[in-house]
Design a protein that fits this description.
The chain is of the alpha/beta class. It contains ten helices and eleven strands.
């Protein structure tokens, strides 16, 4: 039986990935704030007698919205510690393992084609700069350990992940929309969009992203974008959420004073599609993924399973 370590295992991506790996027959060990906390590398020593086939490093300290603007120091200190500790543990105690890490599309410089070869070029969006740079440094760390010690890795850069199973207070934009639309329909507040809604975003369904990660996790020293290849305006996403919820989109308001981030964000999927056929890689339509996400939220909010 193959064994793996998953950091950030109780987060949105981590919980879905852990379940999928177990279904595939992996013995999964975890690191989170309660078990083998990454803030001290010594906490990982409980796994020294195990030889992992893969280490999935998902742990990160961040939030959506304007969090990165107001927590630059925390972003640097915590994320650099998490990343350095897992890389040190890998090099010193698990060099046989393939390291599988997650980057962020925030690291791409605005106005630059979001293709893997451009990931370290230019300057990230100023409001996301610190978090984006810690993710760039994670890739540099992987490359450096490969060059000096011959370690093997793969690095994924996902678009915004969505699907059921998210924390009900998760403030990534699509989960905000689902929650705010539901609450507005119940007469509890308004559905308000930040900015004029013309900024463009891309989503990828959680299971599709994980299937791609698993299909590619044995490639050697490669960087892959994971996206749907389709972007929409914030207004278009909001309209879809309203349609599924049977809520009047005309009631949606805009707050032009709020933070909007980069004006557009869509990763180039040419590379991943050269490794995996599109029909296999992207199985879930935006409409289907939103329906599942909204059904989950409604059931969870009402205390149903």
């Amino acid at each position: 039986m193959k064994s793996c370590l998953v950091t950030g295992a109780t987060g949105f991506l981590g919980s879905h990935l852990t379940r999928k790996l177990e279904e595939l027959g992996f013995k999964v060990y975890i690191s989170n704030t309660q078990i083998a906390n990454l803030m001290k590398v010594e906490n990982l020593y409980i796994y020294n007698d195990i030889k992992f086939d893969h280490i999935f490093h998902l742990a990160a300290v961040t939030k959506a919205g304007d969090y990165c603007m107001h927590h630059q120091g925390d972003q640097w200190l915590f994320n650099q510690a998490l990343n350095t500790n897992i890389l040190q543990y890998w090099k010193e105690h698990q060099p046989q393992a393939k390291m599988v890490c997650m980057g962020t599309s925030c690291s791409y410089s605005p106005g630059t084609q979001m293709a893997e070869d451009n990931y370290l070029l230019g300057e990230p969006e100023p409001s996301l700069y610190t978090y984006a740079m810690t993710k760039r440094m994670l890739l540099v760390g992987l490359q450096s350990l490969q060059q000096q010690y011959g370690l093997e890795w793969v690095y994924f850069i996902p678009s915004t992940l969505f699907g059921p199973g998210f924390e009900l207070d998760d403030n990534h934009f699509i989960f905000d929309f689902i929650r705010n639309c539901y609450n507005a329909k119940q007469g509890d507040g308004k559905f308000i969009l930040w900015g004029d809604g013309e900024q463009r975003r891309e989503l990828i369904y959680i299971d599709d992203a994980i299937d791609a990660m698993i299909a590619l996790m044995d490639t050697e020293n490669e960087v892959f974008n994971l996206g749907s290849g389709q972007d929409f305006t914030i207004n278009e996403f909001a309209r879809l959420v309203c349609e599924i919820n049977d809520y009047d989109y005309a009631l949606v308001e805009h707050d032009l004073s709020k933070y909007i981030g980069v004006l557009e964000k869509k990763v180039d999927t040419s590379k991943v599609l050269s490794y995996i056929e599109k029909e296999i890689y992207l199985k879930t339509s935006l409409q289907e993924g939103l329906q599942k996400s909204i059904d989950y939220f409604i059931n969870a909010s009402q205390g149903l399973k």
